[in-house]
Write a structure and sequence with these properties.
By secondary structure, this protein is an alpha/beta fold. Helices cover 34% and strands 24% of the residues. The protein folds into four domains: 5-100 and 290-309, Rossmann fold, CATH 3.40.50.720; 102-280, 3-Layer(aba) Sandwich (Rossmann fold), CATH 3.40.50; 319-456, D-3-phosphoglycerate dehydrogenase, domain 3 (60s Ribosomal Protein L30, Chain: A, 2-Layer Sandwich), CATH 3.30.1330; 457-532, Alpha-Beta Plaits, CATH 3.30.70.260. The protein has a seven-stranded parallel beta sheet with strand order 8-7-6-9-10-11-12, with helices on both faces. The protein has a six-stranded mixed beta sheet with strand order 14-13-15-16-17-18, with helices on one face. Helix 10 (218-223) links the parallel strand 9 (201-204) and strand 10. The two termini are 49 Å apart.
């Protein structure tokens, strides 16, 4: 008789979700509340599937202690509490529920806005203390105020809808949202500095990444109106909390409401606790009965289907493919993702169209997984770990980006070619990749239709310059002076003459001082640093 696969469900996942797992006779289900690392390590050895919410941290040590673990299911969107890299290295599928808490988080964000406007928590606490203090809690109206939304994805879009219903003007910063998408939401797109200057209220709906870390910082607060109010129900660390405290003390910021922190939970002496005009909640974004039931059912079904039938749904660390197809497509998947990731770092803002063109042998394969990986690579800067090859198309559609696949005859110079391109307004850009000799040897071979030869890994430094003698030598001297080593160089001259494009594979990214010296040269037209 075949033994039962053991499933460990932590963090009080919804009862209906647990019931789905318990209904399968081939699964042995054990439930528990949150587990600290040591206890999880002691219990995970013979577990086949682990289902968690956000409280339990699934660390590398816990994953390394697992002997039979096949899947980690996260009942929620973010997988910050799961070491995805460690799971991937050990061949463990990590799945999430990307859409289950959209409404609950949007509603909490707007509840925070209303609570800040009328000091509802403070007035409630005063009444509970037996006071009748009307003068201390004079509020402000939302009607005719300007709400600045940083990140106009699923949640940001829902917050914008609610704000418009309250008579607010909504402006948004999101370089990846198309003008058509913004227009459909009745939202005006804005550059970030302008948003800081114009908004009466600012709400954050970005993932935490290197680019968004401390995005709302001292410089941002200096630009803002006096009396601005800040809401963060997205991720801790996007708002510089020390800078916010200083802005509150100076009177620049009239109030703030936070549901997320860096770290979580915040320490007892957390700097924002002392301000009476700051509202704090303990990461309640997804804490509604409806959201928890929805994500609990969704992750339970995904875990069950994977254990019983090998189906992969909403995986964040592997494509939805059988083993044979994956082996054939793997080189193309890797190249496609890197093409998308590189393109996102040189693309125009407000992209409306993403096109991937397949030529030659690759056009005869199942290209949908490649397209999904390319779109995933392109969208990573927007959605961070929330985007995967399963939900990439839905996220692109939500952002108003049309994704199109084309197939053409074999290019003259290559037996097969993959080209990704984007269009935003009147601007376009593209990158193409091919294989030299075998699928183990990928190259970027065109950038904006100029021929180059660059290895798609590490740091790729692009530079457009006036085509004159001495530029290449000067560039090498500058990089050498700053201890930046060149691994490979490719130079493409404009056929019409006058300009050249240089592509350099570097061992490390040039620092700001290096870039400043390079761009100070009047013959340098622009530079781009692509991290792959």
């Amino acid at each position: 008789m075949k033994s039962q696969a053991k499933v460990l469900v932590l963090d009080h996942v919804s009862a209906r979700g647990v019931a789905i797992l318990k209904a399968e006779p081939s699964l042995e289900v054990k439930e528990s509340g949150p587990m600290p690392e040591a206890e999880l390590i002691a219990n995970i050895g013979d577990i086949s599937a682990l289902v968690v919410r956000s409280q339990t941290k699934v660390t590398r040590k816990a994953i390394e202690a697992a002997k039979k673990l096949k899947i980690i299911g996260r009942a929620g969107v973010g997988v910050d509490n799961v070491d995805v890299e460690a799971a991937t290295q050990k061949g463990i599928v990590v799945m999430n529920t990307p859409s289950g808490n959209t409404i609950s988080t949007a509603e909490l964000s707007f509840s925070m806005i209303l609570s800040l406007a009328r000091s509802i928590p403070q007035a409630h606490a005063s009444m509970k203390a037996g006071k009748w203090d009307r003068k201390s809690y004079q509020g402000v109206e939302l009607c005719n105020k300007t709400l600045g939304v940083i990140g106009l994805g699923r949640i940001g879009g829902e917050v914008a809808r609610r704000a418009i219903a309250f008579g607010m003007r909504v402006i948004a910063y999101d370089p990846f949202v198309s003008l058509a998408r913004a227009k459909s939401l009745q939202v005006e797109l804005s550059e970030l500095p302008s948003l800081f200057e114009r908004a009466d209220w600012i709400t954050v709906h970005m993932p935490l990444s290197d680019e968004t870390k401390n995005m709302v910082n001292r410089e941002a607060f200096a630009r803002m109106k006096k009396g601005v109010r800040i809401v963060n129900c997205a991720r801790g660390g996007i708002v510089d909390e020390q800078a916010l405290a200083e802005a509150i003390e100076s009177g620049k910021v009239a109030g703030a409401a936070f549901d997320v922190y860096d770290p979580e939970p915040p320490p007892a002496d957390y700097i924002l606790r002392k301000f009476p005009n700051v509202i704090l909640t303990p990461h309640l974004g997804a804490s509604t009965a409806e959201a928890q039931e929805s994500v609990g059912i969704e992750i339970a079904e995904a875990a069950r289907n994977f254990l019983l039938r090998g189906e992969i749904q909403n995986a964040v660390n592997m494509p939805n493919l059988d083993a044979k197809s994956l082996a054939t497509l793997k080189p193309y998947l890797v190249l496609g993702e890197k093409l998308g990731r590189a393109l996102s770092q040189i693309s125009p803002k407000n992209v409306e169209q993403f096109t991937i063109n397949y030529s030659g042998h690759v056009s005869e394969l199942n290209t949908q997984p490649i397209t999904r990986l390319a779109v995933k690579g392109f969208l990573e800067r927007i959605s961070g770990r929330d985007v995967n090859e399963i939900n990439a198309m839905a996220i692109a559609a939500n952002l108003g980006i049309r994704v199109q696949e084309n197939r053409t005859a074999s290019p003259l110079d290559y037996s097969e070619l993959i080209q990704v391109s984007v269009k935003g307004g009147t601007e376009e850009c593209s990158i193409a990749g091919a294989f030299f000799g075998s699928t183990n040897n990928p190259r970027f071979v065109r950038i904006n239709d100029r021929p180059v030869e660059a290895t798609p890994k590490g740091v790729l430094f692009l530079l457009a310059n006036n085509d004159r003698p001495g530029i290449v030598g000067w560039l090498g001297t500058v990089l050498g002076k700053h201890k930046v080593n060149i691994a490979n160089m490719s130079l493409a001259r404009d056929q019409r003459g006058g300009h050249a494009l240089t592509a350099l594979n570097l061992d490390s990214a040039p620092c700001e001082k290096t870039l400043a010296e390079i761009t100070a040269n009047p013959d340098i037209l622009w530079t781009k640093t692509i991290k792959l």
